[in-house]
Amino acid sequence: MNEENQPWYGVKVLFLHNNQLLEERVIVVKAESFDDAQAIAIQNSQEYIIGLNNTKFVAIADIFHMFNETIESGTEVFSRMNDINGDVDKYIETHYEDEDWELVYKADEDSK
Fold it and tell me: How many of the other CB atoms lie within 10 Å of CB of 30?
Protein backbone atom coordinates (compact mmCIF):
# COMPACT_ATOMS: atom_id res chain seq x y z
CA MET A 1 0.00 0.00 0.00
CA ASN A 2 1.49 3.35 -0.94
CA GLU A 3 1.78 5.94 1.82
CA GLU A 4 -0.96 8.12 0.34
CA ASN A 5 -3.53 5.37 0.96
CA GLN A 6 -2.28 4.43 4.42
CA PRO A 7 -4.37 5.39 7.45
CA TRP A 8 -3.24 7.90 10.08
CA TYR A 9 -2.42 6.88 13.65
CA GLY A 10 -1.97 9.00 16.77
CA VAL A 11 0.75 7.50 18.95
CA LYS A 12 1.32 8.53 22.58
CA VAL A 13 4.99 8.20 23.50
CA LEU A 14 6.52 8.65 26.96
CA PHE A 15 9.92 10.23 27.64
CA LEU A 16 11.73 10.78 30.94
CA HIS A 17 13.73 13.99 31.26
CA ASN A 18 16.38 14.25 34.00
CA ASN A 19 14.83 11.30 35.89
CA GLN A 20 12.11 13.72 37.00
CA LEU A 21 9.79 14.96 34.25
CA LEU A 22 7.62 12.53 32.30
CA GLU A 23 6.70 13.87 28.88
CA GLU A 24 3.59 12.52 27.15
CA ARG A 25 4.06 13.25 23.46
CA VAL A 26 1.45 12.47 20.80
CA ILE A 27 2.77 12.11 17.26
CA VAL A 28 0.86 11.45 14.06
CA VAL A 29 2.10 8.80 11.62
CA LYS A 30 0.90 7.15 8.42
CA ALA A 31 1.24 3.38 8.58
CA GLU A 32 -0.23 0.19 7.16
CA SER A 33 -1.06 -1.25 10.60
CA PHE A 34 -0.75 -0.78 14.36
CA ASP A 35 2.53 -2.72 14.27
CA ASP A 36 3.91 -0.45 11.56
CA ALA A 37 2.74 2.63 13.47
CA GLN A 38 4.59 1.30 16.52
CA ALA A 39 7.79 0.71 14.53
CA ILE A 40 7.62 4.22 13.04
CA ALA A 41 7.02 5.74 16.49
CA ILE A 42 9.98 3.86 17.96
CA GLN A 43 12.26 5.15 15.21
CA ASN A 44 10.86 8.67 15.61
CA SER A 45 11.40 8.50 19.39
CA GLN A 46 14.99 7.37 19.04
CA GLU A 47 15.63 10.29 16.68
CA TYR A 48 13.79 12.71 19.00
CA ILE A 49 16.12 12.07 21.95
CA ILE A 50 19.33 12.58 19.96
CA GLY A 51 20.98 15.62 21.45
CA LEU A 52 18.63 15.80 24.43
CA ASN A 53 20.82 15.30 27.49
CA ASN A 54 19.42 13.08 30.22
CA THR A 55 16.35 12.13 28.21
CA LYS A 56 15.16 8.54 27.85
CA PHE A 57 12.57 7.02 25.57
CA VAL A 58 10.40 5.13 28.08
CA ALA A 59 7.46 3.58 26.25
CA ILE A 60 4.72 3.76 23.71
CA ALA A 61 1.65 4.22 25.88
CA ASP A 62 -1.06 3.92 23.26
CA ILE A 63 -1.81 3.86 19.54
CA PHE A 64 -5.01 5.35 18.17
CA HIS A 65 -6.29 4.61 14.65
CA MET A 66 -7.52 7.87 13.16
CA PHE A 67 -10.46 7.52 10.81
CA ASN A 68 -9.97 10.82 8.96
CA GLU A 69 -8.26 10.64 5.59
CA THR A 70 -6.84 14.13 5.92
CA ILE A 71 -5.59 16.12 8.88
CA GLU A 72 -6.95 19.62 9.25
CA SER A 73 -7.93 21.99 12.03
CA GLY A 74 -10.07 20.11 14.53
CA THR A 75 -9.02 16.61 13.47
CA GLU A 76 -8.99 14.21 16.41
CA VAL A 77 -5.47 12.79 16.68
CA PHE A 78 -5.81 10.86 19.92
CA SER A 79 -8.60 9.60 22.15
CA ARG A 80 -8.86 7.21 25.06
CA MET A 81 -11.87 6.39 27.21
CA ASN A 82 -11.26 6.14 30.96
CA ASP A 83 -13.64 4.57 33.48
CA ILE A 84 -13.95 7.23 36.17
CA ASN A 85 -16.61 5.56 38.33
CA GLY A 86 -18.79 8.67 38.02
CA ASP A 87 -16.33 11.06 39.72
CA VAL A 88 -14.96 13.35 37.02
CA ASP A 89 -13.61 15.91 39.50
CA LYS A 90 -11.56 13.25 41.34
CA TYR A 91 -10.17 11.94 38.05
CA ILE A 92 -9.17 15.44 36.91
CA GLU A 93 -7.60 16.20 40.27
CA THR A 94 -5.62 12.94 40.20
CA HIS A 95 -4.45 13.09 36.58
CA TYR A 96 -4.41 16.73 35.53
CA GLU A 97 -3.93 19.01 38.50
CA ASP A 98 -1.03 19.43 40.89
CA GLU A 99 1.13 22.27 42.16
CA ASP A 100 2.87 22.62 38.77
CA TRP A 101 -0.01 21.85 36.40
CA GLU A 102 -3.63 22.77 36.00
CA LEU A 103 -6.24 22.50 33.31
CA VAL A 104 -6.12 25.16 30.63
CA TYR A 105 -9.91 25.37 30.56
CA LYS A 106 -12.62 23.53 32.45
CA ALA A 107 -16.19 23.64 31.13
CA ASP A 108 -18.80 24.65 33.67
CA GLU A 109 -21.76 22.47 34.61
CA ASP A 110 -24.12 24.42 32.33
CA SER A 111 -22.17 23.50 29.18
CA LYS A 112 -22.19 19.74 29.81
Answer: 18
pTM: 0.77
Helix or strand or coil: residue 79? coil
Q: Can you give the pLDDT at residue 112?
A: 47
Chunked in runs of 10, what are the mean pLDDT values of the chain (112 residues)?
Answer: 84 92 92 96 96 94 90 86 81 75 67 48
Compute the distance between CA of residue 63 and CA of residue 37 in angstroms, rounded to an integer: 8
Residue 20 to residues 9, 37, 39, 40, 90, Cα–Cα distance (Å): 28, 28, 26, 26, 24
Burial class (CB within 10 angstroms; exposed 0-12, middle 13-18, buried 19+) of 62? middle
Host H or E run for residue 37: helix 34-48
Let me know if 9 is exposed, middle or buried by CB neighbors in 10 A (0-12, 13-18, 19+).
Answer: buried
